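**Backbone shape codes:**
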Amino acid sequence: MGLRADLNETLARARGDLRMGVPVVLMGQAGAVLVASAETVAPERMAAMAVLGPLDLALTGRRAETLKAVAYDTDVARVIVPEGAPLAWVRQLADPADDMDYPMKGPLQTRRDGDAALHRLALTLCKAARLLPAALVVPVPSDFAAKHGLVQVPAAEAAPLMLVLPPLDHVISAKVPLRAAENARLHIFRPEDGSDEHYAIEIGRPDREAPVLARLHSACFTGDLLGSLKCDCGPQLNAALGQMGIEGAGVLLYLNQEGRGIGLANKMRAYALQDQGFDTVEANHRLGFEDDERDFRLGAQILEEMGFSAVRLMTNNPAKIAMMERCGVQVAERVPLKVGLSKHNERYLAVKAAKSGHLL
């Protein structure tokens, strides 16, 4: 196996272990740290970590801003966990669910000296695992992973790899007649790093030499499957497929980036914060995420894999257009997709226009 394949395997195991509440070891130039997800770690594991040395809670700059904790590293805050602090205290800092009921969680001391690179990587891994971006971090000896049978991630090689899109394997395609278009094929693309698969719905036989009618659609379980009225995703999906069916050709990419890339559980956390009066962007920030964590490079990657170099892109989002152009996919035309407005999502759509620049 090559170095990249080995690293992908290691990172996949690390994501899985963090989701199960099992710590992983990150190895950097200055030493090693033991990392556990604040969301999934058990009380006894946290207690065992606290015995090993000074315990930090790594939070994103976004979450630190809400907590009034100083993020000396700008994008990362290393909150010093007081001796004897229970797991409940950690989870109150990690999860904003009770911020309104218990707004005073400080004062919090944050670490200023030392390198935050391993704390930053810990948060990146939590995000990749679709967990809350909050991690317990404690220094350990360099042989700790080997002694305790834990996954060890080499930071110098892993951190840059996580910024690069993994190659996609085209697994299979087959005819799937749809209500919108009977001449449809479903293509399955599987990332080399073992992360979520993505799909392409090809309508008819689009000319690879001409701009194809295309839509980059991010998965939305609540909108696409349940018919939720909180967003316009379901109507956009159906309208895009319908237009492709009418024209007789097109390609819809169904990207597994639920909740603007934060996963369904965190999306529901954001919905719960919206019930408290916060808008979509504010809710994401309180959780510790950016406005939008999706990676639209995936769309360009799949289009190129399928042989398309130019699109008539069905979107209201200028960020998708910009990313397609940066990735070498020409956007010959923007095709507006304004559907799904209801009394339940008026504010949501207004925020998309005002804060995210959507053309609505």
